[in-house]
Write a structure and sequence with these properties.
Elements (H helix, E strand, L loop, with lengths): L2 H19 L4 E2 L4 E4 L18 E2 L13 E2 L8 E2 L9 E20 L12 E6 L6 E2 L16 E2 L1 E16 L9 E11 L3 H19 L2
Antiparallel strand pairs: 1-11, 2-6, 3-4, 4-9, 5-11, 6-10, 6-11, 7-8, 7-10
Length: 214
C-alpha cells in the first residue's frame, strides 16, 4: 500500500471514530430501572422506561421521543409503589447501559384517575459505578402534577452530567398515598470507552507520522 493509500485509510478510520463520538444527543435506548419498593396495582417498574403508553399525537402510533404523548395511566404502562402500607417515599435507580454525557430528561408524571399519586419532591443523583451517587447540578427537585386520567406531554428538563446510572430519591407525592410515574426518558451522547479513545489517539499519531514522511 502506498503512502497516499495509508494516509487515506487512516483518515477514513479517524473520520469514522469521530462521527461515532460526535453523534447528537438522543433518547437513550435500553435503559432499565429498579425500585426500592414493590410494585402495586399490577404495574411494573420496567414500564416507566420501555416506552409503553407513548404515542404520536398526530398518527396515534407508538413512538419513543421526548415529544410523545403518554396515554392515561394504566397498569401495563406505568409504575405505582405498593404494599400493605402506602409508601410516599422511595428510590428508583436507572441503569443507562453505559456511560453517557447526559443533557437532560423527559418525565411523564403519573396521569391516572388519582393524579395525586404522582411524584412531587425528589433529588436526582448520578453515578459512574452504580454505588457512589452525587446530586446532579441543574437537575429538578420538583415534578409538576400529572394530568387527570388523560394523555399528557412530558415535562422537559435540561442539565449536564456524565453518568451511567441515575437515581431518583423521592421525598413526597401530591397526596398521601403511594408514589407513581408514567415514563422517564433520558437524553445524551455515549461516552467512548478507553479502548476507543486509545484507538483514536493511535490513529492520530499514525496520520501525523505518515504526513511527515510524504
Amino acid at each position: 500500500m502506498s503512502t497516499r493509500q495509508h494516509a487515506s485509510a487512516v483518515t477514513a478510520l479517524l473520520t469514522g471514530l469521530l462521527c461515532a463520538t460526535q453523534v447528537g444527543a438522543a433518547p437513550i435506548i435500553g435503559v432499565t430501572a429498579s425500585a426500592s419498593v414493590p410494585a402495586g396495582g399490577g404495574s411494573d417498574i420496567s414500564h416507566i422506561v420501555d416506552g409503553s403508553g407513548l404515542f404520536d399525537g398526530n398518527t396515534g402510533l407508538p413512538i419513543f421521543t421526548t415529544g410523545a404523548l403518554h396515554g392515561r395511566a394504566a397498569a401495563d404502562s406505568t409504575f405505582v409503589s405498593g404494599g400493605a402500607v402506602p409508601v410516599t417515599t422511595g428510590s428508583i435507580v436507572f441503569d443507562l447501559g453505559g456511560l453517557y454525557a447526559l443533557d437532560g430528561m423527559a418525565v411523564w408524571n403519573f396521569n391516572g384517575g388519582d393524579n395525586t399519586v404522582g411524584v412531587k419532591d425528589l433529588v436526582v443523583l448520578g453515578s459512574i459505578d452504580g454505588v457512589n451517587f452525587t446530586p446532579i447540578d441543574g437537575a429538578p427537585n420538583l415534578f409538576a402534577m400529572g394530568a387527570v386520567a388523560a394523555p399528557e406531554l412530558a415535562e422537559l428538563f435540561s442539565f449536564s452530567s456524565s453518568a451511567a446510572f441515575v437515581r431518583f430519591d423521592i421525598g413526597s407525592t401530591y397526596g398521601n398515598s403511594d408514589f407513581g410515574l408514567s415514563e422517564v426518558m433520558f437524553t445524551g451522547t455515549p461516552v467512548p470507552e478507553p479502548s476507543s479513545l486509545a484507538l483514536l489517539a493511535g490513529g492520530v499519531a499514525i496520520l501525523f507520522l505518515v504526513r511527515r514522511h510524504r
